[in-house]
Structure formats: structure tokens, C-alpha cells
Write a structure and sequence with these properties.
Layout lengths: L6 E4 L3 H10 L6 E4 L16 E2 L10 H9 L3 H8 L3 E2 L3 E6 L4 H14 L4 E3 L1 H7 L7 E7 L3 E3 L1 H14 L3 E3 L4 E6 L7 E6 L2 E4 L2 E4 L5 H7 L9 E10 L10 E3 L9 E4 L5 E4 L3 E2 L10 H14 L8 E11 L16 E3 L7 E5 L5 H18 L25 H10 L6 E3 L4 E2 H8 L8 H8 L12 H12 L25
Parallel strand pairs: 1-2, 1-13, 2-9, 5-15, 13-21
Antiparallel strand pairs: 3-8, 4-8, 5-7, 6-7, 10-11, 11-12, 14-17, 14-18, 14-19, 16-17, 20-21, 22-23
The chain binds flavin-adenine dinucleotide.
């Protein structure tokens, strides 16, 4: 690996990985650094997985603009990168007559943002989703809404970037900037725990930590990111609870507690919204669990808590940047700019919802900004937009499964019984363009360990397979990197 680049990107969440993938079209030396042991471990790892249509975002904000631009990009993106996405449509459901007028406000927002939407009657809404609260007074239907696999999308974007020449350094933590000795306030690289890397541009895509990165650049000292926790219930996929993406009427701070199917067939209930101090605190709380349960049951009273199989929390990187449009009084907009006071720095901050949706448009915006700043963006002639997905055994016909097993008997050994994931799939991920080297990395790529037993059956087998394929001692195999090893000593020698 070299140490001199044209562009360094800090952070391999959805924003950093989409930006890397977009930049990989051009003849540039690009480095993507991520402090975790894998891509997609920050805010992108735990969210509602909704590709928003654009009716929530305040018109005139960057959030609205990026959301509306990005939403139609997801069809081609998911085809090229071969990850899960479905354009399901989405609903805001009003419960009780007092909520009904708010649907008109969101219809107006949708129209101003330019996304088609229609109000449907309570009767029609209950026909579409029979389990809804009998006090439903109407709903807003937005056909452009969708659901995606955020892990799949981010990993696929990163893989496609790597296939096209981007270098990815995991376990590499940005510490500070390198400055030019000759020119005032020009960034010429970064210092990390793995050494120094020089570049003409550094892109800040550090999610929850983007404020700390920009302060080190001397930019926007007033900008703060508050971690806003959102907690969820995941329900067993054998007990289908709803057919549609159902949002409540939003609150002042969030889109509210939704009830939605996932692409993997589970039902997701959440999130709430609580501002906290600690950017690493992903714990769920008893109070939060009760809050989301009440919120979910407000829409779908028949939700059955006996079918909850997992709980988790995500942290929104909620920023306090004012909207640049002087006509809009709004203080939580995205930051997407090249600050004037520093040279060589692209600043992406405040990437809370809908940044998962917006990430492809943000990446495209970064290309435009670099071009406007005089960067020569020479397209490569051999850029390949396709990231071939690896076989997912449970999705194949019996005939195709038989062919795969005949070619490689490891596809005939089921390791995760709940989600039906085979040894062949695990091995393929360990040897993929971005090798999966931990249990959670395998989980994000194969969906193993997400079913009813939450990995109880598969974990020892996965530790064994990882150790064998990576040529490591099982004691070295971890859940998510150093410090989370599963085993701490041998109790007996193998016979
Ligand atoms: C509860 C919840 C629900 C949401 N629902 C939706 C939704 O339905 N639809 C939607 O569009 N959006 C949604 N979002 C928002 C979306 O998940 C985030 O906006 C998006 O994932 C942010 O991506 P990111 O790449 O900016 O940040 P991250 O995914 O956090 O990536 C930043 C990366 O930078 C790395 N990093 C940080 N500091 C350093 C450093 N010093 N050195 C090296 N690496 C560093 C981190 O480890 C991390 O991997 C939701 C968010 C939450 C929390």
C-alpha cells in the first residue's frame, strides 16, 4: 500500500462508502480509512432501513434536496451493486380526528419537495392494512418510499469501490490533519494510529464524530453533533405483523415510531428519539422499550410481544447546522461543503436521517464540488459499476442449490439453522474483496445469527470456520474486533 493519495475519506459508513464508490469512476488515488474492524459499523448499522420518499424533509433544506435527488437513484444502484431494495411505498397514518389535519401538512410538504403523494381514507387504509387501529382517521400514501438492506448497500458500495481501485484501511483511526508548511491553512493529509498519509483532499464522513473532525480542521467551531438514540424491537419473521411501511404522524424531533416489514421478512418496531451524551452508548433501556411498544401498538394494537426476538439501538448524528436557504428557519440541516477558510477539505456533517437515503446524491454532490474547486475528474475507461453478489443459498431454487452443492459441498452444510446460511456462504464472505474477519462481519453479509436463536447454534461453528480460513487460533476470533474475542482460554487440548 502507498502512503500518498489524491483523496482520503475518513469514515466507512454509507456516506463514506457511497462517496468512495462514486469517486472510483475517476483516475484518482483514493484511500478510505475506518477505525473499526469492518465497514458499516456506525449509524449505518442500526436504523429503520427506509428509503425515504421526501415528504418528511423541510422544503428548501439540503436534506430535502438530497433526499429527493437520491430516492430515484436506488433502483439502478441496487441493480448495479446487487443488494436488497424494494420500492414498497410508505404511509403516514393518522390516529384519531385530531391527527387528521397534519396529513395535509405533509401532503403539502411532499408537493413542495416534488414527490407524488395522496391522502387515502380510513376505510381504504384499513383495507390495505387490516390490523390497524380502528381509530385510524386517514393516511398519506407516498409511492416512492421503499425499504433497503443498509448493511448490504454499504458493503456492496465499499466492495465496488475497492474493485475499482480504492484502498480501504480498516482499524485506522484519524487523529489529526497534516498541514502544508508553505501555504496557509492547506490540509495535505492525515495522521492516524497506523501512520501518516498524504493527499490533496480529505473528506470528512465520520458520522457521529464529524464535528470533532471538522473542529480539528478549524471549521465550524459552533457545530455540535448530539447522539440521538433510537431503540427498536425486531419480531420473528414467522409471525408476519404488517404488510406495509407505516409511520405515525411525526413528532417535533423525529419521524415517530414506525411499524414496518424488513426485506428479510421480520417486522421492525421503533425508533424513539432520546438525546444522550455518549456517542458510543448503544444500550437499550427499559423505558425506551416501553415507549416503542406503546408507539407501535398505537398504530397496530395487535402486535404480539411474544414474537419479539431481538432489541437494538442506533445513534443518529444529529447536527445543529442552520439551513443555508435564508427563507428557511431550520437548524438541523446537513453540512455538505468545501469550507472557504481551509484548503483541501470536504466537509460532510450532521448526517442524521435521511442520510442513508441521501447518500448516493451526497456522493454525486461531492464530485460536483471537487470539479468546481478545479479538480480534474478524468473518467476511467475501465470503471466497472457492477458488484456481483455472491450466492444466497436460501434464495435459490432446489435445482440451483443442487448444482451449487455439487460444485462445492460446503454449500450443503447449514451452519445457521434459523436463517438457513451455509458454510459455503460464510467461506465466500471470508474471501470476498473486503474479507469478513469477525462474527459480526459475517452476520452483516449473510444475515446469519439474526433469527430466533440469535447465533446460539451457529457461533461455535463460525468461530471454527473463521479460524480455519484465516489461519488463526480460535482464541483470536472476535465478535467485532480486538477486545471482543469469544474464547479466553483452552480447557483441554484437541484429541
Ligand atoms: C435510529 C435511526 C433510524 C434511522 N432511520 C433512517 C432511515 O430509515 N432512512 C434513512 O435514510 N436514514 C435513517 N437514519 C440515518 C442514517 O442511518 C444515518 O444518517 C447514516 O447511516 C449516516 O451515515 P454516515 O456514513 O454519515 O455515518 P456512520 O455510519 O456513523 O459512518 C461514519 C464512520 O466513520 C467512522 N469514524 C468516525 N470517526 C473516525 C475516525 N476518527 N477515524 C476513522 N474512522 C472514523 C465510524 O467508525 C463510522 O464507521 C437513521 C438513523 C438512526 C440512528
Amino acid at each position: 500500500m502507498r502512503s500518498e493519495y489524491d483523496i482520503i475519506i475518513i469514515g466507512a459508513g454509507v456516506v463514506g462508502c457511497m462517496t468512495a464508490r462514486w469517486l472510483s469512476r475517476y483516475a484518482l488515488r483514493i484511500l478510505l480509512v475506518e477505525r473499526s474492524s469492518d465497514v458499516c459499523t456506525g449509524a449505518t448499522a442500526a436504523n429503520s432501513a427506509v428509503v425515504h420518499a421526501g415528504y418528511h424533509a423541510v422544503p428548501g433544506t439540503l436534506k430535502a434536496e438530497m433526499n429527493i435527488k437520491a430516492n430515484p437513484m436506488w433502483d439502478l444502484l441496487s441493480e448495479e451493486l446487487q443488494f436488497g431494495f424494494a420500492r414498497t411505498g410508505a404511509y403516514i397514518v393518522a390516529v384519531g380526528e385530531e391527527e387528521r389535519p397534519k396529513l395535509d401538512m405533509f401532503l403539502d410538504r411532499a408537493q413542495k419537495n416534488g414527490t407524488p403523494a395522496q391522502i387515502i381514507s380510513a376505510k381504504e387504509m384499513r383495507r390495505r392494512e387490516p390490523g390497524l387501529n380502528s381509530e385510524v382517521s386517514g393516511a398519506l400514501f407516498v409511492p416512492a418510499g421503499g425499504i433497503c438492506d443498509p448493511w448490504g448497500a454499504t458493503i456492496a458500495a465499499a466492495e465496488n469501490a475497492v474493485m475499482n481501485g480504492v484502498e480501504l484501511r480498516l482499524g485506522t483511526e484519524f487523529k489529526d490533519f497534516l498541514w502544508s508548511g508553505e501555504e496557509a491553512r492547506r490540509i495535505v493529509g492525515i495522521r492516524t494510529n497506523q501512520g501518516r498519509f498524504t493527499s490533496r483532499w480529505v473528506i470528512n464522513a465520520a458520522g457521529l464524530f464529524a464535528d470533532e473532525v471538522m473542529h480539528k480542521a478549524g471549521v465550524r467551531p459552533e457545530f455540535r453533533i448530539t447522539p440521538r438514540r433510537g431503540e427498536y424491537f425486531v419480531m420473528d419473521r414467522h409471525q408476519i405483523q404488517v404488510q406495509n411501511v407505516l409511520f405515525p404522524v411525526p413528532t417535533a424531533v423525529s419521524k415517530g415510531i414506525l411499524v414496518t416489514p424488513t426485506l428479510h421478512g421480520n417486522t421492525l418496531v421503533g425508533p424513539n428519539a432520546e438525546n444522550i451524551e455518549d456517542k458510543t452508548d448503544m444500550d437499550v433501556t427499559p423505558e425506551g422499550m416501553n415507549e416503542i411498544w406503546d408507539g407501535g401498538r398505537k398504530l397496530v394494537p395487535g402486535l404480539d410481544r411474544r414474537h419479539v426476538i431481538a432489541v437494538f439501538a442506533g445513534l443518529r448524528p444529529a447536527g445543529n447546522a442552520p439551513c443555508l436557504n435564508p427563507d428557511v428557519n431550520y437548524h438541523h440541516d446537513f453540512v455538505i461543503d468545501i469550507p472557504e477558510e481551509v484548503k483541501g477539505f470536504v466537509n460532510l456533517g450532521g448526517m442524521e436521517s435521511p442520510a442513508l437515503t441521501a447518500a448516493p446524491a451526497i456522493a454525486e454532490r461531492v464530485i460536483g464540488m471537487l470539479r468546481d474547486a478545479g479538480e480534474t475528474m478524468a473518467p476511467k475507461t475501465d470503471w466497472n459499476p457492477i458488484r456481483p453478489a455472491r450466492p444466497v443459498f436460501r434464495h435459490l431454487t432446489h435445482e440451483k442449490q443442487a448444482v451449487l452443492v455439487a460444485e462445492d459441498p460446503r454449500y450443503g452444510r447449514v451452519v445457521c439453522r434459523c436463517e438457513y446460511v451455509t458454510e459455503g456462504e460464510i467461506v465466500a464472505e471470508i474471501h470476498a474483496p473486503i474479507p469478513a474477519t469477525t462474527y459480526d462481519a459475517i452476520k452483516r453479509r449473510t444475515w446469519l445469527g439474526t433469527g430466533r436463536c440469535l447465533g446460539g447454534f451457529d457461533m461455535p461453528r463460525v468461530v471454527d470456520i473463521l479460524a480455519r480460513e484465516l489461519g488463526k487460533d480460535p482464541l483470536e476470533i472476535s465478535k467485532k474486533g480486538h477486545g471482543s474475542e469469544f474464547l479466553f482460554r483452552r480447557t483441554k487440548e484437541a484429541g
